[in-house]
Amino acid sequence: MGDVVSEALDIKTVRVKQLIDNVAEDPQADAAEMSLSRYNLRVDQGKADGIVAVPFFIMRGFRTRNIVTVKDSPLKSLKDLEGKTIGLSGWQDSGNTWTRALLRREGVDCDKINWVMFVYTLLKALRKGYICPSYMEVAKKGYEGLLTQFIEVDNKGVVSITKGCAVAGLGGKPVYRTGDYNYYITEKIRSNDAKAVGPFIMASLEWERLFQKGCCGTACK
After folding, report:
1. CA 49 to each of CA 26, 39, 46, 176: distance values in angstroms, whole numbers, following the listed order
2. Is residue 152's pLDDT more than 70?
3. Of 21, 58, 14, 55, residue with least CA distance to 38
4. Are strands 159-161 and 151-153 parallel, antiparallel or unpaired?
5. Cβ neighbours of residue 119 under 8 Å, at least 6 residues apart?
6. pLDDT tens-digit profile of 177-217?
7. Burial of 172 from C-beta contacts in 10 A (0-12 / 13-18 / 19+)
8. What's the angle, vertex CA 169, arms to CA 168 and CA 174, rounded to 5?
């Protein structure tokens, strides 16, 4: 890994923490990486004005996301994932889009899968030693954010997780659901929605397991 210098072009490369959502509206970048799935979504939404897509293949082989589980897992096929929990980095990422296509081809109802992002996935991966311990600060910040931003305890000691999106989906008619930031912040919210309760409980269990042991895995050591 590293920067590649061109003898023919004068290019300044800037590393960003997250992909630029719309290079046409970014004042600091003349070009940026954009996955095919994100570009197609913008075209479908009519938000691709000013963007010129240039296909650029940096790998000779076709790449898709790996589906990783533990060695002694009872999961042996894609069909076995229906009703299970899958952690992923981003819903619109190209690799994850292809993964859902594979699942659908095998007859798996993707709406019956619990898609969990970040906190639970990071905590479990740390406990199992799948990722470098340096991710501990990221996981800790994410979990503490859940507690401070979304968890409320009433005068009877009842714990609730708040501000959960009451509905979720993409596409559809008569109202097209874009799945972007504006879509989710304008949908109805409610407390103790199952889509929020489940991931929070699982993240909390991983948090306790991780710190009861007093250590995490040793990946990258």
Report:
1. 13, 11, 7, 20
2. yes
3. 21
4. antiparallel
5. 139, 142, 143, 146, 199, 203
6. 776 666 666 777 788 888 788 888 888 999 998 877 555 55
7. exposed
8. 115
Estimate to the nearest angstrom the gap between the alpha carbon of 185 and the chain centroid: 17
177: phi then psi, degrees, rounded to nearest 5: -95, 110
Residue 67 is which amino acid? I
Nearest to 116 by CA among 151, 79, 142: 142
Cis peptide preceding 133, ω within 30 of 0: no
Quickly tell me which residue has 């240039």 as its tokens. 54
Q: Are 139 and 126 contacting, i.e. CB atoms less than 8 angstroms apart?
A: yes
Is the per-residue pLDDT at 105 higher than 70?
Answer: yes
Q: How many CA atoms within 13 Å lie on the side-chain side of 90?
A: 11
